[in-house]
Amino acid sequence: MKFKPIKRRENPSGIYRCGTCGRFLCKNSFWIITKDNTGGTCKRCTKNTRWLWGQNNIQHLRDKAREWSKNNRDKRYQNKIRHRLKKRKAVDPTANRKYILLIYKYARMKTRKTGILHEVDHIIPTTKGGKHHENNLQVLIHTENNIKSNKLDTEIVGTKLEEIKKYYNL
Ligand SMILES: [Zn+2]
Fold it and tell me: How far is 19 from 40, CA to CA, in rounded Å?
């Protein structure tokens, strides 16, 4: 048995009626035009119903957001850093977020294994025009990072991306 594809009748007037608010509107005011060409729900009504749904299910949305942040701790932390650095205009759009995450992961792993606090440091400080880019990041011990603070100290060299990549066999 062959199914014939349903052909959509063109509405010659180009005016459709919203089934919810009853307004007569042009095609652009609808997301989807129903098959029988009577229109459907206009964009404004869809927005309203969505907003209402959110109001009625606010607890559900909150639970979902909480669950996400529980499962995506790394991403949440990264977003926090990005937000802070955005104010300083230090976020680089060409940066590879995967590599940045890897550097933070390495620092955490080192802290856990050695028991000494390891931190991620910007080689050129963001306050001095350095970017939040994987090539501008290195892993330092907390005490070293404190000495360096926001100076451009080239003597203190930490673990850079190349070494971290090698460590994870990338
Ligand atoms: Zn409507």
Answer: 6
Tokens of 101: 């995450």
Q: What is the pLDDT of residues 102-133, one digit of tens each?
A: 999 999 999 999 999 999 999 888 888 888 99
**48: CA distance to ligand 1 center in Å?**
9
Tokens representing residue 26 in the block: 């042009």
CA of 89 to the centre of ligand 1 (A): 42
**Ligand 1 center to 9 CA (angstroms):** 21
- Which residue type sits at 14? G
User: From start to end of 7-74, where are the E strands?
Assistant: 15-17, 24-26
Domain locations in the chain as residue ranges: 15-65, 73-167
Sign of torsion over alpha carbons 24, 49, 38, 30 = positive
pTM (predicted TM-score): 0.60
Distance 44 CA to ligand 1 centre (A): 6
